[in-house]
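fyi for ur records
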Amino acid sequence: MASMEDQLNRLQSKLQELIHRYQLLEKEHVRLRLEIKEEKEKNNWQEQRAEQLKLQVEILQSSRSSMPDDQKKSLEKRIGQYVKEIDKCIAMLNE
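which gave:
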């Protein structure tokens, strides 16, 4: 009978170790998900900032020198889109 008890004790200790490892993995999983979320937010912010900087460069270029008509139209279109987005945001804030 002692060997049966020994086997049960070993099985129980292995089960406890598995539970402990599972809990550690769960904590790491939560941490990694949070890290991924933060990195995505950081990436989105950087993309928005890059877009803003591109727009600023285009505006500066247009003010310093004459731009070809197609670039001017493209810039005006983008500025118009930004104005529409801003108007939508203001309208949502006023609701």
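The chain has a mean pLDDT of 86. thats all i got for now
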